[in-house]
TrEMBL record:
<keyword id="KW-0479">Metal-binding</keyword>
<dbReference type="GO" id="GO:0005886">
    <property type="term" value="C:plasma membrane"/>
</dbReference>
<dbReference type="Pfam" id="PF12796">
    <property type="entry name" value="Ank_2"/>
</dbReference>
<keyword id="KW-0677">Repeat</keyword>
<keyword id="KW-0343">GTPase activation</keyword>
<comment type="function">
    <text>GTPase-activating protein for the ADP ribosylation factor family.</text>
</comment>
<feature type="domain" description="PH">
    <location>
        <begin position="266"/>
        <end position="361"/>
    </location>
</feature>
<dbReference type="GO" id="GO:0010008">
    <property type="term" value="C:endosome membrane"/>
</dbReference>
<dbReference type="GO" id="GO:0008270">
    <property type="term" value="F:zinc ion binding"/>
</dbReference>
<dbReference type="InterPro" id="IPR011993">
    <property type="entry name" value="PH-like_dom_sf"/>
</dbReference>
<keyword id="KW-0863">Zinc-finger</keyword>
<dbReference type="Pfam" id="PF00169">
    <property type="entry name" value="PH"/>
</dbReference>
<dbReference type="InterPro" id="IPR002110">
    <property type="entry name" value="Ankyrin_rpt"/>
</dbReference>
<keyword id="KW-1003">Cell membrane</keyword>
<dbReference type="InterPro" id="IPR036770">
    <property type="entry name" value="Ankyrin_rpt-contain_sf"/>
</dbReference>
<dbReference type="InterPro" id="IPR001164">
    <property type="entry name" value="ArfGAP_dom"/>
</dbReference>
<dbReference type="InterPro" id="IPR004148">
    <property type="entry name" value="BAR_dom"/>
</dbReference>
């Protein structure tokens, strides 16, 4: 039994089935065309007896065309070709032939065309109509909002009814196709064979020719009987199969999708999903998705090349999406992008999510030995913090950063599962991770964890120091303080991904294992940190006074306001109106510390300056209420990163404002504490670099006033607004000029120049001036590795004469 279209395949309504239907419809359409042509030619032959010879030649050509159309059926093709050759030699027909031709050709084939092909066309119309209704019902069901229950029920009922109708129609349509394909052979051969026997009977002139053809004709006659019997049997078998399938229970089509990793065709799972486009319109399109070869792909038509959504399932995660208006949505997140999809029902969504999770687990199990190769192949970091397009030459990368971070106690194994030799890190938490845990951390979002590679990404000094001052041991003491008390099991290497993911979410998102301090413990902690800050302040005040800076040289043409500065490295001069001009000479070996500053002639400075008063003195007083925000506030000033991490774990807001202390923030207190790493830690945890205190001063103001060149460099790289003015209408640049701090003036003016150059280059400029990049890189390394070189200037004193 030969089935042209499989009954099981039609119920899936897959692209393969649609492609087969298109081929069959095209074949039947062409068959109808050829048969109609043959019948019309036969009628023309009967009506135009006088033009018999010409009509006969055309008729023979029609037979040849029909033979060519039937190249897939060797019996029809070979037989018709042989008949055409014999008829080509028979030019003189008798009139009696036309009567037989009318009975054998016209009547039989017209009946076949009118009856069988008409049934096919009617079935096709019903199929096309119900297909459109099904698509419309699917779209309406997908678009039904979850908060309008009546619309959801209505859409579901319509979809159920439409699916049921579709199954009946498509089964009938496939039956009609298979019956037609089975019957066409016997009908065509039977008609033609009858016509050829008419030639043998009525034309004695062609007896010799047909005597040679007679054995073949007899052979076909015998085959025709068998073909008729076979066609009848095939029809009964197909009707029986049609009836059997129709009686099956298809009330729950959602259970048809199952994950099969051992599928012969390599496709572990496939089916229709709605996919949200990544364009601005966010349109939803229905596509045929499949999981194959450790990839998630989709295609619009069966003949289209699959589009890869996820290149490697080991680097992705999948999660539910309940914040959309559409129902049954889920998201597959990879290191480079995310794909939002929608199933037709909740069961299908769960099936797809489970299938993706199983694929991830299978990929890790089958390709666990390739994890190191994968680590070196694809970098999924959050990107270099350097504002340039390429990592700088002296930024640590590869084994250098890895060795420094791994050397910290506890960092030699993954912080969450204990996998040895981790190659990834969370920079805002200060921990090391294995590749599987890094993928889970990445799925949490950058507001929880920022993942970078220890071997592939460039590491700036301040970020590397941040990693070295925290580490897995410190963070686990905070985030796993109550784990044993609660009886929670810590994942081990090789545990299923979903178990590790659940633990990590409980640890960092829900913070289930963090020990909440009592009010007395919190008060004791805050008081201790405030005392520690005082000790640091007093120790710094007892340092010997630094010598005053050399008197800046006044460049010819500079005005009294001192608004012209030259960077020795860059060779670029800024004038008062913000314009830039290249200087004739650029000393190649001059140090940034000796930059030529065109400032107003300073007044003679006394040997001992009055006590500095850059802002209101910080004095600890009993607060109205102790909170984790207050702990973060004083820990930032006391340079205690573990206490800062603990405060954040307890729920402290990184931009918490101390209303009792001039509305200062933890970042401003970190500036006052003098630690570059403390500022970096707060910025990595989303601290606002432009948040101002009650005096209108942001972190950049305070860093400038205190002469903290390294912090100024850091804030400028993180997007600090150097044009912001405090309540005295002073910008950081004005403060730096007044304090004659050449380094900070250089940084501020270079940053402004770079901003102007980027604006001039257009909105798509990314890197800015290379000199700016190099100088900032020099200051970054100097601030982290040799900070004493930057402490050449006393802090700003607004009362200084």
């Amino acid at each position: 039994m030969k089935i042209t279209v499989d009954f099981e395949e039609c119920l899936k309504d897959s692209p393969r089935f649609r492609a087969t239907i298109e081929d069959v419809e095209g074949d039947v359409c062409e068959l109808e065309s050829k048969l109609d042509k043959l019948v019309k030619l036969c009628i023309g032959m009967i009506d135009a007896g006088k033009a018999y010879n010409a009509a006969n030649k055309q008729f023979v050509n029609g037979i040849r065309e029909l033979a060519l159309q039937s190249t897939k059926d060797e019996v029809i093709e070979s037989s018709l070709s042989k008949f055409a050759e014999s008829l080509q030699e028979m030019i003189n027909y008798h009139t009696i032939l036309f009567d037989q031709a009318q009975r054998s050709i016209k009547t039989q084939l017209q009946t076949f065309v009118k009856d069988d092909l008409r049934k096919f066309k009617e079935a096709k119309k019903q199929f096309d109509k119900v297909s459109e209704e099904k698509d419309a019902a699917l779209i309406k069901n997908a678009q039904a909002p979850r908060n309008k229950q009546h619309e959801v029920e209505e859409a579901t009922n319509i979809l159920t009814a439409t699916r049921k109708c579709f199954r009946h129609i498509v089964l009938d349509y496939v039956l009609q196709i298979n019956v037609l394909q089975s019957k066409r052979r016997s009908e065509i051969l039977k008609s033609m064979l009858s016509f050829m026997y008419a030639h043998l009977t009525f034309f004695h002139q062609g007896y010799d020719l047909f005597s040679e053809l007679q054995p073949l004709m007899k052979q076909l006659g015998g085959q025709l009987d068998q073909l008729v019997v076979d066609a009848a049997k095939e029809k009964r078998d197909m009707e029986q199969k049609h009836s059997t399938i129709q009686q099956k229970d298809f009330s729950n089509d959602d259970t048809k999708l199952e994950y099969n990793v051992d599928a012969e065709n390599g496709i572990a799972m496939e089916g229709y999903l709605f996919k949200r486009a990544s364009n601005a319109f966010k349109t939803w399109n229905r596509r045929w998705f499949s999981i194959q070869n450790n990839q998630l792909v989709y295609q619009k038509k069966f003949k289209d090349n699959p589009t890869v959504v996820v290149e490697d399932l080991r680097l992705c995660t999948v999660k539910h999406c309940e914040d959309l208006e559409r129902r049954f949505c889920f998201e597959v997140v990879s290191p480079t992008k995310s794909c939002m999809m929608q199933a037709d029902s909740e069961k299908l969504r769960q099936a797809w999510i489970k299938a993706v999770q199983n694929s991830i687990a299978t990929a890790f199990r089958d390709k666990g030995d390739d994890a190191e190769k994968l680590d070196r192949k694809s970098s999924t970091s959050t990107g270099s913090l350097d504002s340039g397009g390429e990592p700088k030459e002296r930024s640590l990368k590869g084994e250098s950063a890895l060795q420094k971070v791994i050397a910290i106690p506890g960092n030699a194994c993954c912080c969450d599962c204990g996998q040895p030799d981790p190659r990834w890190a969370s920079i805002n938490l200060g921990i090391t991770l294995c590749i599987q845990c890094s993928g889970i951390h990445r799925s949490l979002g950058v507001h929880f964890s920022k993942v970078r590679s220890l071997t592939l990404d460039s590491w700036e000094p301040e970020l590397l120091k941040l990693m070295c001052e925290l580490g897995n041991g410190v963070i686990n003491q905070i985030y796993e303080a109550r784990r044993e008390e609660l009886g929670a099991r810590k994942p081990q290497p090789g545990d299923p991904r979903h178990e590790v993911e659940a633990y990590i979410k409980a640890k960092y998102v829900d913070r289930r294992f963090v020990r909440r301090p009592s009010d007395e413990e919190l008060r004791s902690k805050v008081v201790s940190l405030s005392k520690q800050e005082k000790r640091l302040s007093s120790s710094s005040e007892q340092l010997p006074p630094r010598p005053p800076p050399p008197t800046p040289k006044l460049r010819p043409g500079s005005n009294a306001s001192g608004q012209s500065v030259k960077s020795a490295d860059s060779g670029i001069q800024h004038s008062a109106d913000g314009s830039r001009e290249m200087l004739a000479t650029t000393p190649s070996n001059s140090s940034l510390a000796d930059a030529d500053i065109a400032e107003p002639p300073p007044m003679p400075m006394p040997a001992t300056l009055p006590p500095p008063s850059p802002c209101k003195e910080t004095v600890f007083s009993e607060p109205k209420e102790y909170s984790s925000g207050l702990q973060l506030y004083w820990a930032s000033c006391a340079r205690s990163l573990p206490d800062m991490a603990e405060a954040l774990a307890h729920g402290a807001q990184v931009n918490w404002v101390n209303t009792e202390d001039d509305k200062r923030t933890p970042l401003i207190m970190a500036v006052r504490g003098g630690s570059l790493v403390t500022c970096e830690f707060l910025l990595q945890n989303a601290a606002n670099v432009n948040q101002q205190d009650a005096q209108g001063r942001g972190p950049l103001h305070h860093a400038t006033m205190l002469g903290r060149t390294g912090q100024v460099c850091l804030f400028l790289k993180r997007g600090a607004n150097q044009n912001a003015a405090d309540i005295e209408e002073k910008t950081p640049l004005a403060i730096a000029v007044e304090a004659a701090n050449a380094d900070i003036v250089t940084l501020l003016r270079l940053a402004k120049m770079n901003e102007e150059m980027r604006e001039a280059e257009g909105p798509y400029s990314q890197t800015g001036d290379e000199t700016y990049q190099d100088i900032f890189q020099d200051f970054t390394h100097m601030a982290s590795n040799d900070p004493d070189k930057l402490n050449r200037y006393q802090q700003y004193d607004p009362q200084r004469p």
